[in-house]
């Protein structure tokens, strides 16, 4: 077996131990005589898998009892619409702080249902920082303030919960959920597609304060209604059972590896290794303001973009994949989610140093 070092932005590398457990249980889950893919979601076997996953997620992320945890479908993109449908609660406006393309996409969808106020944006500086809190023009009557806690393309991350002056904060945590301890009580709603730090694509996690749900816009389909989903334990219809199961194993893996505090330490060490090297020379460059640099996605450019193709080809030959930057920003991007090891990052660094030495 040869596994490559996978720096893909998502779907992304998963913990090897989790994949091995999936492999060992694939044909016969715990003596049930079938795989999780073949079980009825209403049978006691799957019900126990689902309940365990929620219990472990609540424990790992320290989710207060007055928050519902929903296991949904449609990706983070579907939530761009479901959130305004569910959370406007008779209000008409929503605030957005934009720090990258994902926030822009979320704002565009929200604009179908609400008046979007861009309270602050760093677009004029190509999304290379988070606008100063003092410059945000928040609307005190907004239904919520939306942020993207980690902009996957631009590599810009919030490290503290934003102060929204009493308005509920909604955070798209698709690419940094469970990467460090978080205070859920500071948010109205947290959402994330699973395919980066949680598990396989197809599952979307929503963590929502229960007093905010149950007041959907008229004509909201039942399947998009958080309250109906919560009342039915996310099984109003057939859920993405297999993705739910694998995600549950990832939550256990986090628990067995020191919880989020230990995860955060490992992530800080991986990111520091990359940024310290990038800042120490001129061949590679990262444009993001230091205090806003993502610990999950490290974009970098080569001084001479004509070498990009050669860099990627050599990386592939060295067993390092998924490094091509997003088409909108170009260059490279190393996505180093929870399951990326420090050893993987060191292999990338060794390759980058050698490439710079021979081409620089
Ligand atoms: N938000 C962020 C921050 C993302 O990184 C992504 C996917 N890369 C999305 C939203 C869209 O997620 P999905 O493909 O699950 O709809």
From TrEMBL:
SUPFAM superfamilies: PLP-dependent transferases (SSF53383). Homodimer. The lineage of its organism: Bacteria, Pseudomonadati, Pseudomonadota, Gammaproteobacteria, Nevskiales. This is Phosphoserine aminotransferase. Belongs to the class-V pyridoxal-phosphate-dependent aminotransferase family. SerC subfamily. GO terms for cellular component: cytoplasm. The modification N6-(pyridoxal phosphate)lysine is found at residue 196. Its EC number is 2.6.1.52. HAMAP family: SerC_aminotrans_5. Binds 1 pyridoxal phosphate per subunit. GO terms for biological process: L-serine biosynthetic process; pyridoxine biosynthetic process. It catalyses: O-phospho-L-serine + 2-oxoglutarate = 3-phosphooxypyruvate + L-glutamate; 4-(phosphooxy)-L-threonine + 2-oxoglutarate = (R)-3-hydroxy-2-oxo-4-phosphooxybutanoate + L-glutamate. Residues 4-348 form the Aminotransferase class V domain. It is found in: Cytoplasm. L-glutamate binds at residue 42. Keywords: Amino-acid biosynthesis, Aminotransferase, Cytoplasm, Pyridoxal phosphate, Pyridoxine biosynthesis, Serine biosynthesis, Transferase. Catalyzes the reversible conversion of 3-phosphohydroxypyruvate to phosphoserine and of 3-hydroxy-2-oxo-4-phosphonooxybutanoate to phosphohydroxythreonine. One of its GO terms (molecular function) is O-phospho-L-serine:2-oxoglutarate aminotransferase activity. Pyridoxal 5'-phosphate binds at residues 76-77, 102, 152, 172, 195, 237-238. It comes from the Bacteria. Pathway: Cofactor biosynthesis; pyridoxine 5'-phosphate biosynthesis; pyridoxine 5'-phosphate from D-erythrose 4-phosphate: step 3/5; Amino-acid biosynthesis; L-serine biosynthesis; L-serine from 3-phospho-D-glycerate: step 2/3. Its cofactor is pyridoxal 5'-phosphate.
